[in-house]
């Protein structure tokens, strides 16, 4: 399924017959492969994605989860625009790929869903962030995911070339002690950064602040 989408680069939505150009909205093959490899490297079984889009990244994540071979594997996706902006194409592809049973969908904005997950004491091994690219949106996603992802877990951030995204990442590395594990090359259309959260949250005084 991944190979077909990467090759054909367009699709017709089964839901309403609309025509869709999948890229550059969808992640590139290089980014998808990097994402899949991190899922496998971390032995992840609980993953979360902010911004499902056309589902290309989700398919790579599911491929990694299947390779990890855990019957409890689950990929949680958060996207309020799937039925409008994307005509449910992602679920069309996920269904055709035969991995629908792995995916749990929440059709709300992440600033609503993530606090609820925190209240429910949910936990994830790896997160992929590709939702609201404004600074405030990325910042909120990272702050909540920093509490939802296991200690020392991975947060894979798309569109790192955007100043808003890079700035939000800079806060987390400068003030929260996260580390950058990988950054894509400048040749990639979608730059990405792979962040690792701290194993032990830093003890910060109430007025702690480092310029970022």
Number of domains: 1
Low-confidence stretches: none
Say how many strands there are. 9
User: For the record, what CATH class applies?
Assistant: Alpha Beta
For CATH, the homologous superfamily is named as Vaccinia Virus protein VP39
Q: Kindly report the average pLDDT value.
A: 96
State the share of residues found in helices, binned by percent. 25-40%
Query: Which structural class do the helices and strands define?
Result: alpha/beta
Strand arrangement, major sheet:
5-4-3-6-7-9-8
Q: How many whole angstroms does the radius of gyration measure?
A: 17 Å
Indicate the overall shape: globular
CATH architecture: 3-Layer(aba) Sandwich
User: Major β-sheet, in short?
Assistant: 7 strands, mixed
CATH topology: Rossmann fold
What portion of residues belong to β-strands? 15-25%
How many individual helices?
Answer: 7
Give the N-terminus to C-terminus distance in angstroms.
41 Å
Order of helices and strands: HEEHEHEHEHEHEHEE
């Amino acid at each position: 399924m991944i190979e077909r989408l990467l090759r054909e680069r367009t699709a017709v939505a089964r839901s309403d017959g609309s025509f869709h150009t999948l890229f550059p909205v969808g992640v590139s093959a290089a980014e998808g492969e990097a994402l899949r490899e991190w899922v496998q490297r971390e032995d992840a079984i609980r993953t979360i994605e902010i911004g499902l889009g056309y589902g290309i990244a989700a398919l790579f994540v599911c491929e990694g989860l299947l390779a990890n071979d855990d019957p409890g594997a689950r990929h949680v996706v958060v996207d309020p625009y799937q039925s409008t902006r994307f005509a449910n194409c992602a679920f069309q592809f996920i269904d055709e790929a035969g991995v629908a049973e792995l995916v749990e969908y929440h059709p709300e904005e992440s600033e609503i869903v993530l606090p609820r997950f925190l209240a429910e004491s949910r936990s994830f091994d790896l997160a992929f962030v590709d939702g609201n690219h404004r600074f405030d949106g990325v910042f909120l996603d990272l702050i909540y995911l920093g509490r939802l992802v296991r200690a020392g877990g991975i947060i894979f951030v798309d569109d790192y070339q955007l100043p808003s995204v890079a700035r939000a990442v800079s806060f987390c590395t400068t003030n929260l002690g996260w580390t950058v594990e990988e950054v894509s090359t400048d040749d990639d259309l979608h730059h990405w950064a792979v962040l690792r959260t701290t194993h032990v949250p830093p003890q910060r005084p109430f007025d702690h602040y480092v310029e970022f």
